[in-house]
Amino acid sequence: MSIHKEGYATIAIVVVFVIIVNILVFKFLADYAWLAWLLQLGSVFLLFLVLQFFRNPDRNVVENEYVVLSPADGKVVTIEETEEPEYFKDKRLQVSIFMSVWDVHANRWPIAGKVTYFKHHQGKYLMAAHPKSSTLNERTTIAVRTEKGYEIMFRQIAGIMARRIVAPLQEGDTAKQGQQFGFIKFGSRVDLFFPLGTKVRVQVGDKVKGGLDVIADVAKV
Fold this sequence. Notes:
15 strands
């Protein structure tokens, strides 16, 4: 288990904060044992929370051109037909994955191919589970087309706590299925948009892991 590079600065700040808190507690609150214990416990828990948030586990990804892998760890919260106005500009099948603060937040390529569309949008910070967060929140939209012409779009969406979306990409980049392409800090959501008729292999409520679990079949479009 390693720590994602996006967490280095945040972890350093938290470590300094924890040290300062414990020094102040030892110096000024030694006579208030219950309060000192509470503050020390709270500071250690904060460090634990940040460390687990930025964990970056190794994944044994098995590439498969006939399936779409999950781009994120989290819970499937939406499977519905919707209008996609940004890139495809037609009806699509949307699958949304909500990432809580307890999930791994590194994002992975769901398919292999070329990046055909990339755009970062400034926006609001509604709760990631909110239906309108997909179009109103800060977000990054990415489309990838395989060598055989199959194309999907997916979107990193900031949440009420997520204030930084990392996706150092540009159109023309190569996507390697299952490999990391970005990160979203502190709770968020990822939406995928498929052609109508796509055979989806998850249900609302399912827990999925990025790069491991299959979201949909490509061969059955």
